[in-house]
Specification:
The chain is mostly beta strands and about 300 residues long. It has two helices and 26 strands. A seven-stranded antiparallel β-sheet has the order 1-22-19-24-17-14-13, with no helix packed on it. It has a seven-stranded antiparallel β-sheet with strand order 2-3-4-11-6-9-12, with no helix packed on it. It has a four-stranded antiparallel β-sheet with strand order 5-10-7-8. The N and C termini lie far apart (about 40 Å).
Length: about 300
Amino acid sequence: MPIPEEVSGKKRLVVKKLFARQQHEGFGAVVRRSIGRFELRYFDPFLVLDEFSVTAPAGFPDHPHRGFETVTYMLEGEILHEDCEGHKGVIRKGGLQWMTAGKGIVHSEMPSSNATGTTHNKGLQLWINLSSKHKLIMPSYQEIESKDIAEAEKDGVRVRIIAGEWNGVKSKICTRTPTMYLDFTLSPDSKISQPIPLHWNAFVYVLQGHGHFGDAKSQHSTAAAHHLLLLGSGGDRLEAWNDSDSGLPLRFILVGGEPIGEPVAQFGPFVMNTQEEIDKTIDDFENFTNGFEKARHWKSQAASDLELF
């Protein structure tokens, strides 16, 4: 889908800054959740953003999803993915899996057999909502190895294009909910002025270093690792720069998406539009119907090894 060309001539400012504190999820896993917590339940179309860290045997064993997409981007180590439809694969460092849960999937995400008990497997998982017309489509995957992710570099700025485009370089990912997802690394004293579609919601999540975002005069403009920055509306670009005295690079993701503007009803890993649809989803899952049929007799290898369920 083409990116809108409307411009305002104004830059996006940071309107809210959140520190992603650690919390436990799954089986012994630790995540830093910034979107999807009580201070920020939903940022249309984004449901959850987790920065996760798992060391075997911890992980995310068998669990369901319906009604949205999960985007898993590995920063270190590797994760083994299995699902009830028979899909299985490893997401390695720098690699990406864009999963459309659609009408329903049950899967597991665990450190692969190559990961020892001392290997830290770290990454980001973003949940992106789907519009009502896409919530019950068939599950599907887009998977890209690190070497195949589009990259570009200019004036001390290196960009990995997960979704969308940068400076004419485009990602291979097809997004049902129009989305941009860019992984920036800025060397000291470098800066960017990145276009953002005028009516999209957008945020920054800092992975490494320290930088300035939006406007140096704003109280929320500076941020270090594990901080989420919500960008305000009304502007068509983000300005960011690395002026760190430490000589270290600044790494962050910039994510934007077109708001869906529909009601959201959520019960854990199920995201629909009404409570009635959530009740129906729970019934489907418990009775292995309408998308969950193959989950009846399925158990992941990881769950079997851990003697779970």
